[in-house]
C-alpha cells in the first residue's frame, strides 16, 4: 500500500518492462509518435524538485517510451519576446536541443495565444496596423528561428469560447478573425515544412466548440491558407471525459475536411485527492478511450501527454485540490492508467493487423 492512496492497491513496478513501452506500441498501432511535453529544468513546477531529475530524465530519454516532445512553456510569447522586438530563445532551445540530441520528434507550441503574453502586448494601445506589424515580427522571427526543427506548430491556440464563438482576445478585438488568417499565412511562409495546427481544449466532444474548430479550418481553406491539422488538447477530468465513440466521431469530422489530428496535451486529472482505487479506475478508462480513439482513426497521427510525472504537472497549480493527472506518481510507480494506454494501443495494433490481413485477402482474391 502506497502513502498516496486511501485504498490498498497492487504494487506497481517502478520501471515497466521494456516490452511495455508506450511509443513502441503506438508506432506498432500505426501512430507516428507517442510523446511527452517537458518544461525547462529548474523553472515553474520543476523548481526545487531536482532530486527527481535523473530518474525523470532517463524515462523521457527512452525513445521506446516517448518518441516526441514539446516545450510546455519555452516557446510562448511571454518567454521568447519578453520586450517588444527583443527575442530570447533560451528556454525554447533547451527542449528543441533535447529533441535533436535524443532523436525525438519536436512539436512546437504556440505562436499566437491570448494567454501567457508578455505584459507589453496587453499594455499597448494597438491599431490594426501596429498589431499586424507586431504579430508579423513575432511569428516570422520565432518560426524562422525553429525552421526545420518542428514537425508541427500550434499556430493559433484557443481562439474559441465554449459555445464556439470567437474568444474576445486582444488579437480578436483589434483584428477580428483576420488575426488567425494572418498567423497561418506567416507561419506557412516562415517554415514551409512544418505542419500547421489549430489547437484548443474541449474540442473532443461533439458540440458548439467543435463546430467552431471546424469553422476555423473551413475559413482558412476558403481563403487558400494552409492548415494541416487540428490539435485536440485533451485535458480531461476522470469520470467526465468524452466517450470513445464521441472522440472517434469528432476526429472523423476534422479528418473529413482533409486535415490530420493529434492529441496534443493529454492529461486526465482527478478532481478529488488523494487518489482512490475508484478514481484511478475512472482515469484508466478515460486514458484508454482517448488513446484508443486516436489509434483507431487513420487521420489521428500522434499523442502528446502534457508531461508524464505528476509533480511536474500544471494541474495542481491551476485547479486547487485536483491533480494526479499523469501516468507516473511522485515515487515513479505508474498509475493503473499506464496499462489502460497500453491496452488501447495493443487493441489498435490488433485492428491494424486485421485490416492488413483483409487487404491481402482482397488482393489475392481480386
TrEMBL record:
PROSITE patterns: GH10_2. GO terms for molecular function: endo-1,4-beta-xylanase activity. It comes from the Eukaryota. InterPro entries: GH, GH10, GH10_dom. It is found in: Secreted. It catalyses: Endohydrolysis of (1->4)-beta-D-xylosidic linkages in xylans. Its main location: secreted. Gene3D superfamilies: Glycosidases. Residues 1-20 form the signal peptide. Pfam families: Glyco_hydro_10. GO terms for cellular component: extracellular region. Pathway: Glycan degradation; xylan degradation. Residues 43-344 form the GH10 domain. Belongs to the glycosyl hydrolase 10 (cellulase F) family. This is Beta-xylanase. The lineage of its organism: Eukaryota, Fungi, Dikarya, Ascomycota, Pezizomycotina.
Amino acid at each position: 500500500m502506497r502513502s498516496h492512496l486511501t485504498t490498498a492497491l497492487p504494487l506497481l513496478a517502478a520501471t515497466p518492462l521494456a516490452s511495455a513501452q508506450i511509443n513502441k506500441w503506438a508506432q506498432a498501432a500505426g501512430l507516428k509518435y507517442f510523446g511527452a511535453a517537458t518544461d525547462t529544468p529548474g523553472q515553474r513546477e520543476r523548481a526545487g524538485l531536482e532530486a527527481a531529475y535523473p530518474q525523470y530524465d532517463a524515462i523521457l530519454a527512452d525513445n521506446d517510451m516517448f518518441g516526441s516532445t514539446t516545450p510546455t512553456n519555452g516557446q510562448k510569447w511571454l518567454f521568447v519576446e519578453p520586450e517588444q522586438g527583443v527575442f530570447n530563445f533560451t528556454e525554447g532551445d533547451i527542449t528543441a536541443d533535447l529533441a535533436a540530441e535524443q532523436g525525438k520528434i519536436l512539436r512546437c507550441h504556440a505562436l499566437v495565444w491570448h494567454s501567457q503574453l508578455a505584459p507589453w502586448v496587453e499594455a499597448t494601445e494597438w491599431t490594426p496596423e501596429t498589431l499586424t506589424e507586431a504579430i508579423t515580427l513575432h511569428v516570422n522571427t520565432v518560426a524562422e528561428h525553429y525552421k526545420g526543427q518542428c514537425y508541427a506548430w500550434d499556430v493559433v491556440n484557443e481562439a474559441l469560447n465554449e459555445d464556439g464563438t470567437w474568444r474576445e482576445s486582444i488579437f480578436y478585438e483589434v483584428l477580428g478573425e483576420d488575426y488567425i488568417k494572418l498567423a497561418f499565412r506567416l507561419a506557412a511562409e516562415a517554415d514551409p515544412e512544418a505542419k500547421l495546427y489549430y489547437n484548443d481544449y474541449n474540442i473532443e466532444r461533439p458540440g458548439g466548440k467543435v463546430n467552431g474548430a471546424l469553422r476555423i479550418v473551413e475559413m482558412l481553406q476558403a481563403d487558400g491558407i494552409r492548415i494541416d491539422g487540428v490539435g485536440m488538447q485533451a485535458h480531461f477530468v476522470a469520470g467526465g471525459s468524452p466517450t470513445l465513440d464521441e472522440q472517434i466521431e469528432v476526429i472523423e469530422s476534422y479528418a473529413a475536411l482533409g486535415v490530420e489530428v493529434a492529441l496534443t496535451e493529454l492529461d486526465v486529472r482527478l478532481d478529488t485527492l488523494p487518489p482512490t482505487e475508484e478514481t484511478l479506475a475512472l482515469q484508466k478508462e478515460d486514458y484508454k478511450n482517448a488513446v484508443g480513439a486516436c489509434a483507431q482513426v487513420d487521420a489521428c497521427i500522434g499523442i502528446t501527454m502534457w508531461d508524464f510525472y505528476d509533480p511536474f504537472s500544471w494541474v495542481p497549480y491551476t485547479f486547487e485540490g485536483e491533480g494526479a493527472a499523469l501516468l507516473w506518481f511522485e515515487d515513479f510507480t505508474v498509475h493503473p492508467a499506464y496499462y489502460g494506454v497500453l491496452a488501447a494501443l495493443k487493441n489498435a495494433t490488433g485492428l491494424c493487423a486485421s485490416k492488413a490481413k483483409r487487404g491481402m485477402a482482397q488482393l489475392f482474391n481480386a
